[in-house]
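#struct-pred

JT: dropping the chains for the assembly here, can someone run the whole complex?
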Amino acid sequence: MSPSDLITISPLLVLAFGIIAIMLMVTLVRNHALTLVLTITTLAISIAALFVSSSARSRQITSLLIFDNYALFFMGIIAGSALVVCILAYGYMSGRRNIKEEFYILMLMAVLGCAVIVASSHFVSFFIGLELLSISLYVLIAYLRSKPIHIEAGIKYLVGAATSVAFLLLGAAFIYADSGTMVFSGIANHSFTHNPLLLAGLALVVIGIGFKLALVPFHLWTADVYQAAPAPVTAFIATASKGAVFALLLRYFNAINARDYPQLFTMFVVIAIATMFFGNFLALLQNNVKRILAYSSIAHMGYLLTALLAGGTLAAVAVTLYILTYFVTTLGAFGVITVLSKKDNDFEMLDDYRGLAGRHSVLSGIFTGFLLSLAGIPLTAGFIGKFYIFSANVDGKLWLLLTVLIISSVLGLFYYLRIIVAVYTKKELATRERAPSWSLAGGFALGFLTVFLLWIGIYPSPFIDFVRIMVSGLI
Amino acid sequence: MILILLLVIPLLGAVLAWAISRWFAVLALLADMFILIFLSVAQENTWLMTIKLPWIEQLGISFQLGIDGLSLLLLWLTVLLGIFSIFASWNEIQERVGFFHFNLMLILVGIMGVFMALDLFLFYFFWELMLVPMYFLISIWGHENRVYASLKFFIFTQAGGLFMLISILGLYFAHGQSSGDYTFDYFQLTGTYMSSTLSILLMLGFFIAFAVKLPIVPIHTWLPDAHTEAPTAGSVILAGLLLKTGAYGLLRFAVPLFPKASITLAPIAMILGVTGIIYGAILAFAQRDVKRLVAYTSISHLGFVLLGIFSGNTMALQGAVIIILAHGLSTGGLFILVGALQERIHTRDMNQMGGLWATVPRMGGVGMFLALASLGLPGLGNFVGEFLVLAGTFKTYPILTSVAALGFVLSAIYSLWFIQKVFHGPQEKHRQIPDLGIREMAVMSFIMAGIVWLGLYPQPILNTAKPTLDKIQSKTTVSMVQPDVAK
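RK: done, full complex below.
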């Protein structure tokens, strides 16, 4: 490691120093607002450091981490989503009796984990990042601890994540036994024969990744965790955690030339179809908005997988752009839930939303926009993302996946519209308590996301250009 | 620039109507009407006006609009029915008036965009854009079963739209791979070279989307529900305009982009059209709900449009255009009438009506006129259209045409049945209800004048649409000749 390498990894260093600084500060003085300010400052400096890092000469730091444009882009959107989540969390936490400051420390640790994941080019760094992320999430999911349901979800996630990571490690060991390397790009070079040990290793790694992405059949934790975790944490799991792992999957997929392994390809096709179908189908059966969004996020991972399988530059752009639009949209949708949540429970049942438009017309409009974006309707970011996914599939001639994509998109419409219908149903105000109020910070975050939602939806050119430059080094 | 104004003015109107007063919606439409007058006077060649601005250049997407005679006629229909539907629902809408007109205007913007878009991405954009406000219109201001109807409407059209999206992308890549130029430009895509299997598959994607809208019989089931449950303005726009976007899509995109495939598919499409004519008519006769009755007549009448479009004959194509306009006016009028009736007697059940002529003679007269128009009385618009379609198709498909002509008989039965049940016979209950007021009569007299004009002197309309239709016709005939030469 040379001093210039330190400049390259400065985004990670900033995060790490921020975490320590806030930890030290909390031992001296506990102040919710001050912690938020420090967290935001840390994230902002870390985002600024991305630009410094991008101009540094050395990009590959040891064989573990690679700081190409692709990694920096994902670090940026992950830090950005954490910024939004923290701002939303401020309003969410302020009324509660819990200890508040550690929430932000854990959040920063999770961001650091995600940042390591997106930059990793080696199984060891991937593992470190994944553990850093998972351990922070165990605590964050069970953060409220007021009801058994929160603890239950935390434990569920702990058991699932630990098991899946064990599979991942076994897979990495198999791959190492066969090819003698744990560097992603080395795997493709070392093994010209596809022997069973390597294939078993690759398949086991998919289990580890599949758990984090909640791909069917590794999705069983999702709905319970989404429901029980505090709404801002749910937003973080749905976006940053999944986005980071998917970014890694795309890098890994390209590095090992996964399309050359027909068995692996078939496995992904089956997983993608199951994920799209079951995600959407199970969402139809829910009456809890957080659970609906949980299953919908499963389905969205399925859509992403189809583009991943298409391969090529267009697919890489499609995946990256879709993750960007998915981030904006999902953060927005969970943001609305967060700002509406009350002290003792989240605003999550479909019945709670009945007649929302009569009380909060602006918020209802924003919520509708985010839901329509999830459904992929024009004028919203989601449409551009979906358009790219379709393009990648048509380009790759994956007709079977396309057909499933259409059917599941239509199924998807049904439950998004169900929420919208509930929002716009007339309801007698007399039977309701006063409308929940929402904080200034939350409103600011939602306004910011709405601007992005419409901007990407109406004039996506700058974003497409940017994403193209960012993924250009990947393939 | 003028074309952009045509879209921006109603968009502004929508915002102002929500924020201030619904009069801004009317004003915006009137302003659009003046632009249309200007465009109608200045017509010379096929494309009256086009505009192309860069939009998403990375993908070859541009903001490209253009109008020819066909678009112009449909834009006229859009603006007129827009104004009529605002006035028709002046009293019906009491809640969230601003938001209602906001949605209404957005639908109109979407429809006008569909009629003008010459970039396939932009077309799809507008195509989807009109769905959401229509969904709101039905699900917020609709009748008893509105949630079910609006969901069904949205899911059917969205699913059809996704098939079209895949076809658009397929065409985009096929053109890009053969010419190296990746673009969504309509003019460039029209000459794309494709294998016949691919062109049939891609054509089917478009066909499904347009078939859902038109609607063609096996996938029509959203229509009766949506039309029945929508508020009056929603029904008028659905029947008068939204269905026409399907017909327009076939004329503008499906046939010109895939001329050979449309020749291959023509017999099937025409059989579906005739099935629709007969099936819609029979089901219309079986209804008790007046709005449902009118909805099923739409299926029947649009069967003629489908027949005309795929006949590959200029006369039949002209007939299809006349039906599009005449049906827009007559069915729009019928929905306004039925809406007014429901507003007064709070039921749509025909068994609870009867003998209303004595109480509301003006309504009876207007209803009689519209029913006669709908059954194809010579001298009124619908007759001209349906006659031209039948006359044009007869040469090539005599048997199909003969079966389609039965539709005339059936339409006479259901139209007169409607008049008989609602306005004649003994009065079920003695009702004291107000007749059509000045506002409603004004709307109705414009509609009736339009239908009479179309029936007596359709030549100017035919001339306006002729250059476009000639082009479509020449495309399908040229490719019809080619296989013969090969033999």
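JT: nice. The first strand of chain A starts at residue 60 and ends at 61. Chain A touches chain B at residues 372, 377-379, 383, 387, 390-391, 394-395, 402, 406, 409-410, 413-414, 417, 421, 424, 459-461, 464-465, 468 (CB under 8 Å).
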